[in-house]
Design a protein that fits this description.
The chain is an alpha/beta fold and about 200 residues long. The protein is about 35% helix and about 30% strand. The chain has helices at about 1-25, 90-105, 175-205, and strands spanning about 30-35, 50-55, 70, 80-85, 110-115, 125-135, 140-150, 160-165. The protein has a five-stranded mixed sheet, covered by helices on one side. Strands 1-4-3 form a three-stranded mixed sheet, covered by helices on one side. Helix 2 (about 90-105) crosses helix 3. It is elongated, with a radius of gyration of 24 Å.
């Protein structure tokens, strides 16, 4: 009887282990985020197309040029989060987010974005961006520093600027709030670029 009882306990333990094993082997869920379209929508004013603006893919620091989200933990420490990733290359997502903001802010402009960092000769305005800093913190929000250049075609002028934005995390907090704050910061950058482009358009009239 003792042998039978021991065998029964061993069989139960093995069955229990087999039941738990799939759960242990199951990978943690990976979540994907986009920047374009996450900023608050504004009414788009209909106007005839007067000029075109092309936004090239942004130049980003090598440490950020990866699918995984990079979080700022301190002045000298960052963490690469394997379970929270960008749905597209960050350089492309930044360009599309800024292009969306420009499309909302510029009447009469047809705005496009691409995955390449090269210019499009057919565009009236070519926008390039160099991301000097993009710190994402779940506790402190976003610190963004972008140098940008808007170059007009046909040997036209080049307007340059630098946008430094600090954006607190947004509700509902966590990763969703951090991404929303990043999108809002890029929308603010688009607003600053739009003012510069608008001044040049007015000077040509």
């Amino acid at each position: 009887m003792k042998v039978t009882a021991n065998r029964a306990r061993l069989a139960a333990a093995l069955l229990g282990g087999l039941a738990v094993a799939p759960a242990c082997l199951r990978k943690a869920e990976v979540r994907y985020y986009t920047l374009a379209g996450a900023a608050p929508a504004r009414a788009v004013r209909a106007a005839p197309v007067a000029y075109t603006v092309h936004v090239a893919a942004a130049s980003v620091p090598e440490a950020l040029d990866r699918p995984e989200m990079v979080l700022r933990l301190s002045d000298t420490e960052v963490a690469v989060d394997d379970h929270h990733r960008w749905a597209e290359p960050l350089r492309t997502g930044i360009a599309r987010a800024v292009a969306d903001g420009l499309a909302r802010a510029l009447d009469g402009a047809l705005v496009s974005a691409s995955e390449q960092q090269t210019a499009q000769p057919s565009s009236d305005v070519e926008l390039t961006m160099d991301v000097r800093r993009l710190d994402v913190s779940l506790a402190d929000g976003i610190a963004l520093d972008i140098a940008w250049r808007a170059r007009w075609a046909n040997n036209g002028p080049t307007r340059a600027g630098r946008s430094t934005i600090h954006q607190r995390g947004r509700q509902p907090g966590g990763y969703d709030g951090a991404v929303a704050a990043c999108a809002a910061a890029l929308d603010a950058v688009a607003g600053e670029i739009a003012r510069s482009v608008r001044l040049e358009v007015l000077s040509r009239r």
